[in-house]
Amino acid sequence: MKALMFGYDGQVATELRRQAKLHGVEVEALKRSQADLSDPSACAAIVRNTDADVIINAAAYTAVDKAEKEQRLAQLINSDAPGAMASAAADRDLPFLHISTDYVFDGSGDVPRTTEDQPNPLGVYGQTKLDGERQVAEAGGWHAILRTSWVFSAHGNNFVKTILRLAAARDQLAIVADQIGGPTPAADIAGTLITIAMRGKQADGGVFHYSGAPEASWADFARAIVLQAGLDVQIVDIPTDNYPTPAPRPLNSRLECSRLKDTYEILQPDWKTSLINVLAELKTQAPEP
Ligand SMILES: NC(=O)C1=CN([C@@H]2O[C@H](COP(=O)(O)OP(=O)(O)OC[C@H]3O[C@@H](n4cnc5c(N)ncnc54)[C@H](OP(=O)(O)O)[C@@H]3O)[C@@H](O)[C@H]2O)C=CC1
Ligand SMILES: Cc1cn([C@H]2C[C@H](O)[C@@H](COP(=O)(O)OP(=O)(O)O[C@H]3O[C@@H](C)C(=O)[C@@H](O)[C@H]3O)O2)c(=O)[nH]c1=O
Ligand SMILES: [Mg+2]
């Protein structure tokens, strides 16, 4: 089986390239220089001409705060390009796999959000991701939209790397403790996408939730990171109000993941185990320039 993937160096794209071989899946991964999602019709043309059996979109505009000032660009990359790619995939009868986010929800309540719950994004990133979901669904072909949260890995930008960087320079970090969610290893997202791709149209598509367990606050996550990394840094719990950001984040980022289990027998990954692996991998990397 061959997959055409948009995205090359991102967290999920990197893990997917690594794992595909083990599953006998050939992946043609497109860098930004080969497929720029700010040009939706060019991306659709690539899908129209592909010899792949499945399309995976692992590229996105993920700078949550910056998106508040770059709404048009975020809309092109997160909404219009996936919509155009999914339309072309539908015309070719190719399954289209897409990734979305907990930030489509407004964070109200304190129980995990189901795939039936009504999204209501708080910021531009979440709005553009939700519009991308809508456009992918309305394209009318077989699709799977995997909503995940708080992605981490040894590659790209993520909270683990942010905390390690800050911890190197300080002995105390103030981290929000009232936003609760599920840190999710990029490696497990990649594995899940490969499983979905391999089942293809035999299984039900639609929206699925997938996040790591157990639930944690960002402060809990930061504490686990410094503890596992053996750093002597104190994590101080603060309320969201004490950490103002251009884009508001949801307080309740919990995702209810049973639909993925019922459809694909995929369980929520244990983020604490993966954190150990990611920290070990980071240690082996050469320091970034
Ligand atoms: N990161 C997270 O915490 C979460 C992510 N998600 C979703 O998961 C998916 C994967 O995210 P993740 O792997 O973390 O993302 P990253 O931010 O690690 O990577 C994003 C990728 O998209 C590429 N990209 C950005 N703009 C363009 C463009 N104009 N044209 C082509 N490629 C572009 C980047 O390329 P380049 O390297 O050239 O910049 C990069 O490879 C996304 O859909 C995201 O919304 C969902 C929940 C949480
Ligand atoms: C660096 C830092 C962050 N924080 C808070 C801010 C925020 O509420 C939380 C996480 O910060 P970040 O900005 O790293 O996370 P953020 O970029 O909002 O992460 C999100 O990215 C997008 C792409 C998603 O889809 C989401 O699932 C989620 O992973 O931690 C602190 O409280 N103290 C700090 O020193
Ligand atoms: Mg970020």
From TrEMBL:
Its EC number is 1.1.1.133. Gene3D superfamilies: NAD(P)-binding Rossmann-like Domain, UDP-galactose 4-epimerase, domain 1. The keyword Oxidoreductase applies. The keyword NADP applies. One of its GO terms (molecular function) is dTDP-4-dehydrorhamnose reductase activity. Its cofactor is Mg(2+). Residues 1-282 form the RmlD-like substrate binding domain. Keywords: NADP, Oxidoreductase. Binds 1 Mg(2+) ion per monomer. SUPFAM superfamilies: NAD(P)-binding Rossmann-fold domains (SSF51735). It comes from the Bacteria. Pfam families: RmlD_sub_bind (PF04321). CDD domains: dTDP_HR_like_SDR_e. Pathway: Carbohydrate biosynthesis; dTDP-L-rhamnose biosynthesis. InterPro entries: dTDP_dehydrorham_reduct, NAD(P)-bd_dom_sf, RmlD-like-bd. It catalyses: dTDP-beta-L-rhamnose + NADP(+) = dTDP-4-dehydro-beta-L-rhamnose + NADPH + H(+). GO terms for biological process: dTDP-rhamnose biosynthetic process. Belongs to the dTDP-4-dehydrorhamnose reductase family. This is dTDP-4-dehydrorhamnose reductase. It comes from Ruegeria halocynthiae.
